[in-house]
Amino acid sequence: MKKYLLVLIILSLLIFTGCSKEKEKPEENKPDVQPPKQEETQKEEPKEQEPEKGETQGSKIAQFPEAAQGKFTDLSITFNDSREKVIRELGDPDEITTWQGSELYIYNNIGIYIDPSDEKVTGLTAGEGYRTYGIKIGMTGDEIKRVLGEPDYEGENLESGASVLEYEAGDYVVEISLDSEGKKSAGITLYSYNY
Hints:
two-stranded antiparallel ribbon; single chain; 8-stranded antiparallel β-sheet; CATH 3.40.33.10; alpha+beta; 195 residues; 2 domains; 28% strand
């Protein structure tokens, strides 16, 4: 019986120590040293976006989305449209004249420049009372600047000698000519650097 009792005590001790070791195991699995903190990934500085195709530095495409597409705000005719489309959309012009090698189709207060060699639209112009890009021809230069902001160029048109305000829109330029006193807008022309 002593042997039996001794075996029971030993078994009890083994069971007791085995259970206590089981409880300690999770403690053993805990690392003594905290893992090193992972370095935070540095946020990349936003890169300066490259200008989109047709956009130039200083370009005001956001102000002149129609101009950047080669058209006035409420006119369906755009650069590179054919002579046939112009006549189909607007009818026969009131007058046809020439200007610096282009034919100029005049409709009331709108002029459309057409290259006679390929019969494509190469420019748009408008006069007194015409509204486009949020301005009306006849407004003063200061009124135009309040609406459109500062121009990319303000000075003299070297060909005509007129005082002008010019706004770039991608490959195109919106040129607003002022009267002889340089105060009121007398006309607006949309032309392309490519022509």
